[in-house]
Design a protein that fits this description.
It is a single chain. By secondary structure, the protein is α+β, with helices and mostly antiparallel strands. It has two domains: 120 residues, Ku70, Chain: A, Domain 2 (Beta Barrel), CATH 2.40.290; 81 residues, no CATH class. The protein has six helices and eleven strands. The strands form three sheets. A seven-stranded mixed β-barrel has the order 1-2-8-11-10-9-7. A two-stranded antiparallel sheet has the order 3-4. Strands 5-6 form a two-stranded antiparallel ribbon. The N and C termini lie far apart (80 Å).
Length: 284
């Protein structure tokens, strides 16, 4: 597994040398833009709109646009100095908290942590302490010149670090438009909706879910590559035109009733028909 960062975890006076490894991967199918006429890949060039010349990397500087069309230019030396002052290679655990106190909206990216060199025992100690206390560590870390807030927790038998957003990076839910201020639902509607939730409740099994769009796209690409006939996928069940909320809830419940119950009812009906037919013959 590729190492993307080396450093240490610190909590109190304990120092654990570690490595970071990306815990997830993006499996999106990346498509290129080609010229429609000759199918050549399109090049994206950096061009100055004023000088009308192509710009090389060495001709560019970093800047912050503080107002429309006005910039503060930042020298590379200034940025490097700032980076050195803040890039101590350590994950500093500041606090320990309960995991359920952190809303999932804060979570960003996940990284596996592995012990480096002589850090195995201290790594095991932190893992065991977190597991037994049922808590996670809140930490700060700098990765690629950006300071992150992070959570250190146990995932299976491995320490996992998840970067999380700072509070000012999470937008206010109060700014979301058209959210009803009060509930205007009836008891019957709530009861029916709760029944539907109960019928659809199950244990989370991530392995049963697949990216259907990515699978279909790869199949389409492969069929075109091999010159096979492209077959249109089977259409989904057409959307219902039911607009009444109660009718929609009831229709949803009817669709989600356990198959075993339906099968049992069918068998019972068939058995009843058979008994009736037998009695009719005997009477005749």
């Amino acid at each position: 597994m590729h190492t993307i960062w080396k450093g240490s975890i610190r909590f109190g006076l304990v120092n654990i040398p570690i490595k970071l490894h990306a815990a997830t991967e993006d499996k999106d199918v990346k498509l290129r833009n080609l010229h429609k006429e000759c199918h050549s890949p399109i090049k994206y060039e950096k061009v100055c709109p004023v000088c009308d010349v192509e710009i090389q990397t060495g001709d560019m500087v970093k800047a912050y646009e503080y107002t429309k069309g006005k910039f503060v230019v930042l020298d590379e030396e200034d940025l490097e100095q700032l980076k050195k002052e803040n890039e101590e290679k350590a994950v500093e655990i500041i606090d320990f908290v309960k995991m359920n106190e952190i809303d999932p909206i804060y979570f960003n990216r996940s990284y596996f942590m592995s012990p480096n060199e002589s850090g195995g025992k201290a790594y095991s100690l932190l893992r065991k302490a977190l597991k037994d206390s049922e808590k996670v560590g809140l930490a700060k870390i700098i990765i690629r010149a950006k300071e992150h807030l992070a959570v250190v927790r146990v995932y299976e038998n491995t320490l996992l670090m998840e970067t999380i957003h700072y509070p000012d990076e999470v937008r206010s839910a109060g700014d979301v438009p058209n959210v009803p201020a009060e509930d205007t639902i009836t008891d019957k509607e709530l009861e029916t909706a709760t029944l539907l939730i109960d019928q659809l409740t199950t244990e989370f099994e991530p392995e049963k879910f697949n990216d259907d769009y990515r699978t279909a796209l790869l199949e389409l690409i492969e069929s075109k590559r091999t010159g096979e006939e492209v077959v249109a996928p089977v259409g989904k069940e057409p959307a219902s035109n039911v607009t009444d909320l109660m009718a929609a809830l009831q229709a949803s419940i009817d669709r989600t009733k356990p198959k075993t119950e339906t099968q049992a009812t069918t068998k019972k009906k068939r058995a009843t028909k058979t008994v009736k037919a037998t009695k009719t013959k005997k009477q005749a």
